[in-house]
Amino acid sequence: LMKEVVVIFLEFFAWGLLTTPMLTVLHETFPQHTFLMNGLIQGVKGLLSFMSAPLIGALSDVWGRRSFLLVTVFFTCAPIPLMRLSPWWYFAMISMSGAFSVTFSVIFAYVADVTDERERSTAYGLVSATFAASLVTSPAIGAYLSAWYGDNLVVLLATLIALADICFILLAVPESLPDKMRLNTWGAPISWEQADPFASLRKVGQDPTVLLICITVFLSYLPEAGQYSSFFLYLRQVIHFSSTTLAIFIGVVGILSIVAQTLLLTLLMRTLGNKNTVLLGLGFQILQLAWYGFGSEPWMMWAAGAVAAMSSITFPAVSALVSQSADPDKQGVVQGMITGIRGLCNGLGPALYGFVFFLFNVELNAMDPIQGDFNIDPLPLQTLIPGPPFLLGACTVVVAFLVAVFIPEKPSCSSSSSQLSLSEKSHTDGKESMSALAGVHINTPLPGSDEESPPTANHEDFEPLLQDSIV
């Protein structure tokens, strides 16, 4: 298990270092339509992750985890050295790497292989905490090195860390899938049902309660996926945050999110219940999106960031709510639906935000005084709404809130099983929020990072995690 923790830490530490240099390269490469291109790049990556995750998961059940862990880490980190060599190839590789950027799915399957069911929740929590820790620290380190020694050194360091990660997998990580299991399934056909990314989405309408929950997830996660794909670029160029301030912002909001998803979430669950906690989280999300949309001063961004950390309680609460609404033998299926919808949002959200920025002429060369270039006349509305996509996102979350009001809160039949589910989901969803926060839509969020579907109620001999999990 500790070896998997090291793999996760090194991969996302390398990407976190590049937060500041990537914003610079993005603006230099696409000076005319920066937000639009960023949205399209992240959108293509998210959709490819959504499409490929079930197939990679099904193949790893046949060919073993270690080889696919190596493949996913290699292709996720492959674009890093291209950042300074060829920006166009760098962004093209980021888009295409989405097809393999599902490291977390393989990691969770690996953890399930090497732990028994009683220890699995703790193990997932350890992996999630490691992910969060790497992304809280690395952007600040990258910003400091970039300011003092230049972007080239940061890219070189990130490349070396990625290579060290690959070498560590080759030399130190053993195969977790038992040989007997692999021999029995070697050459077995992979059914389309296993590899179909839309399989779980087609099952959504079978239960009215699950349908309401899935609509709520889609309408609330769509703006969040878009928000974090462009938010740091927005803070840097429109609100004029410096690299150091941006790195501190990521760290502070990340720490607040971890606190909100551990101490605060537990307290709210006990006092308010699942459904009311979801509604409270959606309320915080509406407030922070509206604040981002209308805010034009740096202090407003900090205040909205604190509210955004509070809104991160929504998805652990949703996972607990959906686990109560489903039968014990359907946990993997319903959690797979939620992860499938989140993966879809990771593709659609960034593209939607980039397009709305483009529609409202929010262009960096029109708003960044450093450039001194006012080729594009901004619309009058832009003076009232600095961030139009955030306001649009707030409107979709209002609809999500209204839908969530009609979700029936089913009393738990088995308090012990629901508490286990809550503990497990809150750990894993904590990581998802951090994935989005860091703007790394790799398993993405960050970037394809929506990836939990713990097999809480499946006692079969084989490991169904990756078959049930869409992303």
From TrEMBL:
GO-annotated cellular components: membrane
Membrane-spanning parts: 7-27, 39-59, 66-82, 88-111, 123-147, 153-173, 210-234, 246-269, 276-294, 300-322, 343-360, 390-407
Primary location: membrane
Membrane topology: Multi-pass membrane protein
Signal peptide: none
Segments forming domain Major facilitator superfamily (MFS) profile: 1-412
Subcellular location: Membrane
Matching InterPro entries: MFS, MFS_dom, MFS_trans_sf, Sugar_transporter_CS, Tet-R_TetA/multi-R_MdtG-like
The keyword Transmembrane helix is annotated on this UniProt entry: yes
PROSITE patterns, sorted: MFS (PS50850), SUGAR_TRANSPORT_1 (PS00216)
Keywords: Membrane, Transmembrane, Transmembrane helix, Transport
A Gene Ontology molecular function term of the record: transmembrane transporter activity
One Pfam family of this chain: MFS_1
Region spans: Disordered: 411-471
Highest taxon of the lineage: Eukaryota
Biased composition (Low complexity): 411-423
Family to which the UniProt record says this protein belongs: Belongs to the major facilitator superfamily.
Protein's recorded name: Hippocampus abundant transcript 1 protein-like
Source organism of this protein record: Takifugu rubripes (Japanese pufferfish)
Lineage: Eukaryota, Metazoa, Chordata, Craniata, Vertebrata
Gene it is expressed from: LOC115250141
